[in-house]
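Task: sequence design from structure.
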């Protein structure tokens, strides 16, 4: 399915820090939202993501591009290993259920989730992130019971 950025929030929800919807922005790994994980506290999924790869505690306090920038410098990779995906899924679950504002928006949203970047009007899908999009869909289904 081809997603068009101007239809973000109408035909789909883009999970992206520069999305057109507050829900899409909130669901982004970049978003500041303190979470408690089995490895302790983190201020974002992005910080936790890179921490899982290189275990540098400076990543605990970071969010947004600052977390990505330090993570790339320390870890030299953007993609976690398969065995770490469960930790990220649990952290995303924690983020959603601890947000009074966005939990109900997530649960009531009927639109499909996707993830793509928009650079100078050009859409770039990220196939490596399909498992994350699948998790958001599955998590919504699980939470709805």
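Answer:
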């Amino acid at each position: 399915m081809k997603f068009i950025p101007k239809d973000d929030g109408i035909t789909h929800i883009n999970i992206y820090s520069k999305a057109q919807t507050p829900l899409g922005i909130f669901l982004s790994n970049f978003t500041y939202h303190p979470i408690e994980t089995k490895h302790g506290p983190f201020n974002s999924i992005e910080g936790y993501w890179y921490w899982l790869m290189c275990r540098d505690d400076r990543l605990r306090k970071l969010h947004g591009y600052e977390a990505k920038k330090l993570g790339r410098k320390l870890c030299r990779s953007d993609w976690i290993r398969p065995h770490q995906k469960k930790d990220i899924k649990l952290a995303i679950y924690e983020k959603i259920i601890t947000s009074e504002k966005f939990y109900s928006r997530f649960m009531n949203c009927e639109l499909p989730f996707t993830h793509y970047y928009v650079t100078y009007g050009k859409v770039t899908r990220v196939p490596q992130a399909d498992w994350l999009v699948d998790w958001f869909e599955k998590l919504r289904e699980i939470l709805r019971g």
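The mean pLDDT is 95.
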